Amino acid sequence: MPDWIVIGGGITGLALSYELQKAGCSVLLIEQHQQLQGSSSLGYGGISYWGATTAITRILSEEGITRQRNLSNELGMDTEFRELDLLLTLEPEADSQAIFAQYTHCAIAPTLLDAKEAHEREPLLNTQGISGALQFPHAHLNLDCFVEACTIAFQRLGGKVIYAKVENLLISGDRITGVSTTEGNFQAAQVCVCAGGMSRTLLKASGINARIYFTHAEAIETEPVDLELRAMVMPASTKRYSLEAATTDAEKDRLWDIKGQELLPPSIDAGAIQFRDRHVRFGQLSRVLTDPYAVIDPVESEANIRASVSQILPKVGELKGKWRHCLVAFSNDSLPLIGAVKEYENLHLFSGFTSPTVYALPLAQRFAAHVTGKPDEIIQLLSPNRFL
């Protein structure tokens, strides 16, 4: 019997499994899909280490970017890590000074560019569609490469992976004894849920409430193209964050357990990234639907994404590509939920990451140390029970 079962093999689940195994624990990682379908398969892969605004996030951001810069060597495989510019575009009528002021409290302050200067750094930008941009030093990795490299490194250390759908948790008295899956039952001393946007549904099926939520995220992915996008482009005023903040108050929290609810109209944050093999991912449309299995019309979504992206990156908006969809987990204070839940001391959460490429690795390392005898104050502060 393993020491740990980790549910979910995306960025967070793999990072945690790897660090627990490295710390001397035996780990069984259970992932539903052999080819990932969640946010780890559709994220941009940006590493916003510049964005820390508190003492805790500054510590974690410094640890996170240090790990990412050395991760290919550590894992023995290329994660396609690279440093590049991030341009946060400003809408034509935006108050650029006011928006700039909102970012000056970040660990690294941005450079304010006018439309011409932004175009010089990213020639694909439409100067008529923006009033300027905020420029940050940024980093990027290929999430597919990260997942593959981390999986191999985890298995090299003795970790086990099973591809199966977890249907429910096995409970005996005041303890979780394991999980029931489509491939049978598995037992462990400790269980950790790292299922991203499906975490809430999985826990609810066992009568466990956690203040973790999800949006439906949609983007378009192309084949490799001749066009060259030099920078990562995103909006300075991110509508998704406002959407998330507006759907977790006390009034709306109860609606999350009622399927078929759309808590707010969808929003689009026009942005794009080009990967090293030259394929492009652009979007992103976000919906707050309480049913994780809700059916979405891809034709309408793709048209809306293209129209929005074409305003700032016309040539990108015209690229042929495939519409894709996933769930993205979040909490109501933008910090992940890490640690044991109130109901069962051996059932843990490691989910709700707004910036998993920054925080997952350092927090996985800290969590592994914490549960093997070295208490960590940051892990304690991120307990799922902080909202009770």
UniProtKB/TrEMBL annotation:
Domain FAD dependent oxidoreductase span(s) in chain numbering: 3-363
Xref: Gene3D superfamilies: D-Amino Acid Oxidase, subunit A, domain 2, FAD/NAD(P)-binding domain
UniProt key word Oxidoreductase: yes
Keyword check for Oxidoreductase: yes
Pfam families on file: DAO
Keywords in alphabetical order: Oxidoreductase
PANTHER family the record matches: FAD-DEPENDENT OXIDOREDUCTASE DOMAIN-CONTAINING PROTEIN 1, SARCOSINE DEHYDROGENASE-RELATED
This protein's name: FAD-binding oxidoreductase
Phylogenetic placement of the source organism: Bacteria, Bacillati, Cyanobacteriota, Cyanophyceae, Pseudanabaenales
